[in-house]
Design goal:
Elements: E1 6-11, E2 14-18, E3 27-32, E4 37-42, E5 49-54, E6 67-68, E7 81-86, E8 92-96, E9 101-105, E10 111-115, E11 128-133, E12 139-143, E13 148-152, E14 158-162, E15 178-180, E16 186-190, E17 195-199, E18 205-209, E19 222-227, E20 233-237, E21 242-246, E22 252-256, H1 264-270, H2 274-282, E23 298-299, E24 304-309, E25 314-319, E26 321-325
Antiparallel strand pairs: 1-26, 2-25, 3-4, 4-5, 5-6, 7-8, 8-9, 9-10, 11-12, 12-13, 13-14, 15-16, 16-17, 17-18, 19-20, 20-21, 21-22, 23-24, 24-25
């Protein structure tokens, strides 16, 4: 899909909420499968796993909810997972910063393989965080505590790396999330430097977005980044409890603070539990809609925006409403814009 000349941004309405407390505790990332399957990666001590969910949410809690993996260090387990992605065949790849490895599963949850040795040498990992596929199908891995980005085949063969510790363009300080666009450019949530960097596939700095702060376009510990087919850039601004949207030139456009309603599965649960209904009636419900320290952000092929709402045990979903424009329906860039109306 080619990027449009411009966009008529009609809005970004809230769509729905997935999950609930006890069953989707501490969601840290999501990935997408076939037929509106959503893989929700959960991260907590003793309960790190992947819930296999539906875009329409679960109808009710039951013992047959499908899960992949589990807490631990054995094959097919993870201890402190960070991100999950899927390839064209539907296989899942999960980064684990505690055990310094990447684990691969088939869509049915069967363990396939793993790779990663702790260290700081070429191809070694220390706290791998964000993962993404490049246009050639190789894995781009944020090697967080080594302050660099490394590239591997899906079988774990080391291909190269770039970056070092620091705050200059092209350097990182405990980087977290990553996205690779259709051109091979790499976007890194540079957590310690309070910014997002866009770099070429070889690590050449191309653009820097943001600085420390809480105003529009500023960050407090950015943890995730995603780019949609229009070129819009979404940044998970963890410390400010929000997700921010920038256009492909890095200009601030929009922010998401949270609009959650009760999920489908929560409604079913509440109808059989009288006391939680009474307690909910006594609370300040407006506060229940807001994001609480989200950890990542993802956009699917239908321009649906998924925000794992980490400390509220749910996933909030929005859907983009925008019309692509061409040169006949959008004027050329204005060299010297003015608000004067004389």
């Amino acid at each position: 899909m080619a990027r449009p000349y411009g966009l008529l941004r009609a809005g970004f309405p809230y769509l729905r909420t997935l999950g609930m407390r006890r069953i989707t505790n501490f969601p840290i990332d999501v990935a997408f499968g076939k037929d509106d399957t959503v893989y929700i990666l959960l991260r907590s001590e003793g309960a790190s796993l992947i819930r296999v969910w539906s875009l329409n949410d679960a109808e009710q809690l039951s013992g047959d909810l499908v899960q992949i993996g589990g807490y631990g260090r054995a094959d097919g387990q993870f201890e402190w997972p960070v991100q999950v992605i899927t390839d064209g065949a539907g296989d899942l790849f999960v980064s684990d910063e505690a055990v310094h490895r990447i684990t691969r599963f088939h869509p049915d949850g069967e363990f396939v393989s793993k790779f990663g040795d702790e260290g700081e040498g070429p191809g070694e990992l220390s706290g791998p965080a964000g993962i993404a596929f490049d246009p050639e199908g190789n894995l781009v891995v944020v090697d967080s505590r080594n302050h660099r980005v490394q590239r591997f085949t899906v079988d774990g063969e080391f291909l190269g790396s770039f970056g070092s510790q620091g705050n200059e363009p092209g350097q990182f300080e405990l980087p977290m999330g990553v996205h690779v666009d259709e051109f091979g450019d790499v976007y890194v949530a540079d957590w310690g430097n309070q910014r997002v960097q866009k770099l070429s596939s070889s690590g050449e700095p191309l653009m820097i977005i943001g600085q420390e702060g809480s105003d529009d376009g500023e960050f407090s510990r950015p943890t995730g980044v995603a780019v949609d087919p229009h070129g819009d850039i979404y940044v998970c601004d963890w410390g400010n409890n929000r997700v921010q949207l920038f256009n492909q030139e890095g200009r601030y456009i929009w922010k998401f603070l949270g609009d959650a309603s009760l999920s489908r599965v929560s409604r079913t649960y509440m109808m059989t539990n009288a006391m939680p209904n009474r307690l909910r009636e006594m609370g300040k419900l407006e506060e229940e809609k807001y994001l609480r320290h989200p950890r990542s952000v993802r956009v699917d092929s239908e321009f649906r925006l998924y925000i794992p709402d980490y400390e509220s045990y749910r996933v909030q979903i929005y859907v983009k409403d925008a019309i692509p424009l061409d040169e006949d329906t959008m004027a050329a860039p204005i060299r010297n814009p003015t608000l004067a109306t004389t």
